[in-house]
Structure formats: structure tokens, C-alpha cells
Amino acid sequence: MEQSIGELLRRFFGATSQFGSLDRDQTLVITLREAAEGCRKRVDVPRRIHCESCSASGEAGAGAVETCHACSGRGRVSMHSQGRTLTMTCEHCNGVGEIVSRRCGDCGGTGRRLIRERLDVTVPPGVKEGQTLRLRGKGDVGGVMADARVGDLLLSIQVREHELLKRRDDDIVVDVSIDAEVAERGGTVQVPGLHGSERVAIPAGSVDGDEIRVAGHGALRFGSPPMPPPLDGVDESPYRGHDDIAGDHRGDLLVRIYVEPRPTSKKARIAIAAALAAAAATALGLLL
Ligand SMILES: [Zn+2]
Ligand SMILES: [Zn+2]
Q: What's the whole-model pTM score?
């Protein structure tokens, strides 16, 4: 009666507690662009599955043998007593050196086996550093029964740093240095973006620290369908404010302007040097 209740409980709970947590944690490193646009990644996942050799029973098939642990397969054991050595037949294996195994050799009798599974993972567009992707049923199998619970694989996203671009929520930030003349009169510059080089107009009178927004050229928002960025020269972004698309799907490219100091002209340098010399002469005159 006790046994049957135990069996009933085991069936009911799927024996999960026996093995602890069945979820597996792993880190997935991707690039800034992959995080922004989404990607497919191949990952190798170590996980425990049912042992096929024993159909998860943990028991060895007929005729399976293992080396006798009592005599290490020698069939005889030696005893040392008062300077004498007595050798006897191993009682454990009756001198054979092997015993008929009851445990499956492939899983050690646990009914589970550790494998390395290769998975193709779809990383959705717009994921951020530290976000976790849950792959259901790709963790460890919990028990030896066919209906045992299977844990999940939890992939923690790590975004590799880009040498030029930074992410700020869904916007992509890039620093660009322009010369004072372009800042003063306005012009266009090429800046690195998420999808290659972008032509950006610098308005006249720009100053150091100004930010220019290039609408729709940032990262896709999490949950958005994968869509290309808007075409250059299209005034109205197709990703904003249209009835058929809920909200906009991308952040912006944010260009931060750094104005280079105006190079000093030769004439100005001579004037400064003359002024300094005059000041020095005056100081010297005062001292004498
Ligand atoms: Zn097995
Ligand atoms: Zn033995």
C-alpha cells in the first residue's frame, strides 16, 4: 500500500524534486547590430535527456556485465596478516572478476544521459543587454517516466560593445566631429550607422554638443516585426503614425556633434607671439 502511494506521488509530481532545478542558464553573446535587428544563432546546450539505451529505466539489458569492484576484476583478493599473505577467491564475483550488471552502462542507472544539443535560436529584434530568452523544453528532463517534466533553457543576452555606436534604449548614438566652418555654415557629413554609412545634414549654426536625429534609423523596437530602415530622402517615415502599423517600429540614429577647434591661422599665431614678447619685455623693463 505504501509503495503504491509513493508511486502515485511520483507520477503526479513527475519526480522533479529528485533532480532539483531542471532549467539551464546560458549566456548568449551577440553584436549590437544583431541585438538591434534580430538574428539566428547556433548554440550548443548541454542537457539531460532520457537514456535511449535503457528506455530511461536505468537497468541494463540482458547479458550486461561490469567489472567486479571487490577484486578489481582479478577474481581473487589478497589479505595480509602477520607478515603472511593469504590469497582467496573473491566472494563477490565467485572468482569470475565480473558481475552481471543491473545498471545501464550508458546512464549509470539514472535513466538520464547528458548530451550536447545544437540549437538554432531565433533572437527577436530589439533585445537588450541582460534580457533573457526562454526556450521551453530545452532544459533537463525531470524523471524517468515518459511524461516527466522537462525544464527550460534560459539564454541571457550579452551585447558586445561596438567601437563606434552605442545603444540608448531604441536609439543608436554616434559621435561625429565636424570642423568649425561646417558647424557655422551648415553642410552634410557621412556618419557610421547601424546599416552602413549615413548622409546627415548639419544645420547652420550648430554648436558643440548638439544632437541631430535621423528618424527611424535606430534599433527595431522589441516585439516589432523585422523591417528594413526607411529609405534615405523619404521625408515621412513609413514606420511612424500609419494606421496599419501600431506605433513606430524603430528608434532613431542620434548624431552627437563635436565641433573641432578652429585651427589658428599663421597671421594670428604671429600676432599672439608678438603680444607675448611685448608683455615679456614690459615685465623685464619693470624688473630692471
Ligand atoms: Zn540508460
Ligand atoms: Zn570479484
A: 0.67
